[in-house]
Specification:
The protein is an alpha+beta fold and 191 residues long. The protein has one domain (39-185): tt1808, chain A, CATH 3.90.1570. Helices cover 26% and strands 25% of the residues. It has helices spanning 11-21, 42-62, 116-128, 182-185, and strands at 27-30, 33-36, 65-68, 72-73, 87-90, 100-101, 106-111, 135-140, 146-150, 162-164, 170-173, 178-181. The strands form four sheets. Strands 3-5-7-8-9-10 form a six-stranded mixed β-sheet, sandwiched between helices. The chain has a two-stranded antiparallel ribbon with strand order 1-2. The radius of gyration is 16 Å and the shape is globular.
């Protein structure tokens, strides 16, 4: 497949590009610009699964849904950004045929060394603009570290980030009544 043109894309153009690209090539859209996604490492997938599996079980019991790696999210304002978080939680009604959510309540991103700068700056700013989001979790893949941003409502500002670095530190996502210790997040990894 030819390299994509270095130009800004609309959401519709991005969807068409993505459909033509096939399943082996993955991109996100950030403010109209294509951002190539690298293939995840085993460590990346282990962390996403260690958070995603217990979160899914907890959300099913709560009447919410948790999705791992496939569902895209985009801001409800129609801006030209579209991401695929590693884990996303959605509460409320949804259409079973939906491929994009505009009102997630929790997003989890596992940070890779090659994308950490983008994920912690521009992408984080877009996530913070979602009115529905209450929790943003950034889990590092090269060290035992989780950064947790939270707010109680759309009217509130995002609280100061909480950095978790010790195995017995607990990630508490109160918006969906879920908690997990850091040693569980990094289970079976050499940190």
């Amino acid at each position: 497949m030819a390299e994509p043109a270095q130009r800004r894309y609309t959401l519709q153009e991005f969807d068409e590009f993505e459909a033509a690209a096939g399943e082996d090539v993955h991109y996100e859209l950030f403010d109209g610009w294509l951002v190539a996604m690298s293939n995840p490492t085993v460590t990346h997938e282990q962390i996403a699964g260690n958070i995603g599996a217990p979160l899914k079980i907890a959300m099913n019991k709560r009447g919410c849904r948790s999705y791992q790696g496939g569902i895209a999210v985009r801001p409800p304002d129609g801006s030209s950004s579209k991401f695929r978080p590693d884990v996303v939680v959605h509460c409320g009604k949804s259409n079973p045929a939906d491929t994009v959510l505009t009102d997630p309540i929790v997003v989890v991103e596992v940070l890779s060394p090659g994308t950490i700068d983008h994920d912690r700056t521009g992408k984080l700013a877009v996530y913070k603009a979602f009115p529905s989001l209450r929790d943003i979790v950034l889990a590092y893949s090269d060290s035992m570290r989780v950064e947790h941003y939270r707010r109680a409502s759309a009217a509130e500002e995002w609280s100061q980030v909480e950095a978790l670095v010790n195995p017995d530190d607990k990630l508490v996502i109160s918006s969906v009544d879920f908690e997990i210790e850091l040693d569980e997040v990094y289970f079976d990894l050499p940190f």
